[in-house]
Amino acid sequence: MKKIIQDYLESQLAFDSALRDKYDVKKMDKCIEYITSQAREELGGKNGAIPDEKVFHWAREYFLDVADKQEAKAIVNKMKDAKKKLKKVDFSQLEFDWD
Description:
Layout: H1 2-12, H2 17-22, H3 28-43, H4 52-88
């Protein structure tokens, strides 16, 4: 599935400038995760098939809209984690040698 979707996306790069600006082959695994979650939601937990056109739409949507949001969320979460760690540091125990 990944190879088929990747081939499709790469075939679109020649005439889809918006996709060309955002596409990154390194993000294909995350794209597949997004498509899988969209398919599960669409099928409501039941077995079934999703039309190719819809899958390709989700792939394009991932690169144009979702990837940037996921990256921004990851950065915010890293900042929150760093802030929590910083709060745990007891600065009163620091000693300075001013000599």
